[in-house]
Amino acid sequence: MVKLDYPVNLGGYRHPRDPNEPICLHLVHVPGEPNQGLDARDQFRIGRQKLLEMTFAQIEDHIHDDLGRMLGPGGFSSARDIAAITVNRWSHGYAHSKNSLFDDDAASDAIIKLARRKVGRVAIANSDALWSPYAHSAIDAADRAVRELVQQA
What we know:
By secondary structure, the chain is mainly alpha-helical. The protein contains five helices and two strands, in the order ββααααα.
């Protein structure tokens, strides 16, 4: 997916207001293994692995290729027109979340409880520990894990 970035004004920065001004593009890539008969949990696992294994050079090559194919016919040249690339590799976005069509609530809750069980002085904190693919979930899980360790000390 590619879209124009949100129009943000911050400090001395003002978003473009004219098509002749440079603009940020927001690209999203969600690697996976679709149409292979895999359940969502396995697809998330494969997608996360692919995302973490990709090098910055590979990601950059994909961006240049995608934008060239999309915008090249209109005169775009990635070598000339891309000033910079920033990559956020958010693997927490692949945390499995309960799906009422396929997951039993009681079994899911038992798996979640087991996945975040402490091992000695190690407390598990990430979005997987809550089965929620959002940054705030990873933060909440970290808060819980720290509290568990403090209570143990």
